[in-house]
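seq:
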Amino acid sequence: MSDVRPDISKALEAGESLVWQGHPKPGRPISRRANLIAFLLYSATILLLLIAYFLGIYRGHIETVRLLIYGLIGTAAFLTYMGLKLTLLDRRYARSRDRRTAYAITDRRVLSLAGPYRTEVALGPALSAEIRSGGLDIAAGETRLRLDRLDDAKAVREILLGAIADRT
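struct:
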């Protein structure tokens, strides 16, 4: 999978002019919730490994206890994988997706191109734009679009409202 941003000019229709284009800011932070869950998973991993260690020292000669120790080690490995997935792997995938994402505001619509996927909202008086957590939530009827992690969400919102005013 390529990390090349889509070309906005190829998505424009005949006679449509580009008002603004952008993309998500690089660097995706890990949420507090993900950090807390990962901390709990890593803590449980350490606890399970300590239990397995002490069981191995004091009761390791019993066959059923050895099976329990293998189960504890396997569970600890799974919890470690889940913690890494929450904190590193999902973030890495999201960063890769962000490198393949481009946003555009034209004189007719708002576009979001994310790899092969395309989402658009037509400009009109029913369109609403709200700034939320560094991004812009755009809605027109049932169609919703999010321009995530913008450099200046207020400026983009003003450009969008200006494009709507020019259209009407």
